[in-house]
Design brief:
Number of strands: 7
Shape: globular
Strand content: 35-45%
Radius of gyration: 15 Å
Structural class: mainly beta
Largest sheet: 4 strands, mixed
Helix content: under 10%
């Protein structure tokens, strides 16, 4: 069986009933990198910085990096 399910314009990974444009059921793995990719208007990026320890970041479409901190 396919691990990807398409339903009414929605994609499900690990689920047969996606509830948004992309629904991931389970853990998502992101490869660390030094910085975000090039900026794209109207799109943000979620990425893991390759520092020690690894940190989670969001880069907005203006290229501004925001660290996502867990307290």
């Amino acid at each position: 069986a396919s691990k990807f399910n398409f339903l009414n314009g929605k994609v499900g990974i690990g689920t047969t009933a996606p509830v948004t444009k992309l629904t991931v059921e389970g853990t998502m793995t992101l490869k660390e990198q030094a910085s975000a990719d090039s900026d794209t208007a109207a799109y943000g990026q979620l990425w893991v910085k390759n520092d020690t320890p690894n940190t989670l970041w969001f880069t907005d479409d203006a290229g501004t990096d925001h660290q996502i901190a867990f307290v």
